[in-house]
Amino acid sequence: YQAKMDFALKLGYAGDQIQAVLNKLGADALINDVLAELVRLGNKSESEGQSSASSTTSILVPRGPCPKEIASPELSLEDEVVDNSDNLRPIVIDGSNVAMSHGNKEGFSCRGIQLAVDWFLEKGHKDITVFVPAWRKEQSRPDAPITDQEILRKLEKEKILVFTPSRRVQGRRVVCYDDRFIVKLAFDSDGIIVSNDNYRDLQNEKPEWKKFIEERLLMYSFVNDKFMPPDDPLGRHGPSLENFLRKRPVIPEHKKQPCPYGKKCTYGHKCKYYHPERANQPQRSVADELRISAKL
């Protein structure tokens, strides 16, 4: 009896269960019969526990607000901030760059400016400024074609478009550098520059401008009449477009998942995982890396 008791205790069964089985089968019962009865009792108790738990949960009544009214803090905060224009950065658009891009570098398309402005208005931005040289008010010429010119006057009346100064001196046009207006206003207002120009000459003027242009330049593309900025303005591991346009980020960024292979990864720049050791290195293909290592 004691040997069977000790054996069952080592297997993890409770003392009262073992005693009940031995009393039922008798002290002379085989150890296999005792274990079989213990297993049967264990399964029975588990099924009873599950049934009692299911019966307990079935009578629970939810309290509080309706589940549809419950939203995660992120979503509710995001909706709140999307409607709140105070959290959106001011937008400064390089009108000449946008218009020439929409005109395929062949003409100055004012419709491209309107498309860009409409895109930001739909996002909830109210502080939008477009800079265009004043000489674009002149009539279209074969060497400087311009289309939909009435849009410029319309946006000027809406106090969205600003003409940079220009004048004629002895028949020669004197034009102020509109890029300096764009960068200066965006820097002073802590806004976003919308342009495909890198402003390299202005980056060399002031170090604070250089850092600002690198971090606040929003490039774009036109697909026919659709204005399309990138979803990752500062690269794959930078902020999303929604957070890039906000003063305070709301939507949490996806955490950078490190590559499981680490430094042994052979995918090079095509690897979809994050490589912290490659953060400050130029992205080279695997073939280029092999050539460099072979030379070394």
- Helical fraction equals 40-55%
**What gap, in angstroms, lies between the N and C termini?**
78 Å
The percentage of residues in β strands lies in 5-15%
CATH class of the largest domain reads: Alpha Beta
Uncertain residue ranges: 53-59, 61-83
- What is the name of the CATH topology of the largest domain? Rossmann fold
CATH architecture of the largest domain: 3-Layer(aba) Sandwich
Q: How does the helix and strand content classify structurally?
A: alpha/beta
Q: How many beta-strand runs?
A: 11
Outline: elongated
Identify the strand order in the major beta sheet. 5-3-1-8-9
Number of helices: 12
- Whole-angstrom Rg: 35 Å
Order of helices and strands: HHHHEHEHEEHEEEHEHHEEEHH
Tell me about this structure.
Pfam families: RNase_Zc3h12a (PF11977), UBA_6 (PF18039). InterPro entries: Rege-1_UBA-like (IPR040546), RNase_Zc3h12_NYN (IPR021869), ZC3H12/N4BP1_RNase_Reg (IPR051101), Znf_CCCH (IPR000571). A zinc finger (C3H1-type) spans 253-278. Residues 48-58 have a biased composition (Low complexity). Belongs to the ZC3H12 family. By secondary structure, this protein is α/β, with parallel strands linked by helices. The chain has three domains: 1-42; 84-245, Rossmann fold (3-Layer(aba) Sandwich); 255-294, no CATH class. Helices cover 43% and strands 12% of the residues. The strands form four sheets. A five-stranded parallel sheet has the order 5-3-1-8-9, sandwiched between helices. The chain has a two-stranded parallel ribbon with strand order 2-4. A two-stranded antiparallel sheet has the order 6-7. A hairpin with a 2-residue loop joins strand 6 (166-169) and strand 7 (172-175). The radius of gyration is 35 Å and the shape is elongated. The relative contact order is 0.08.
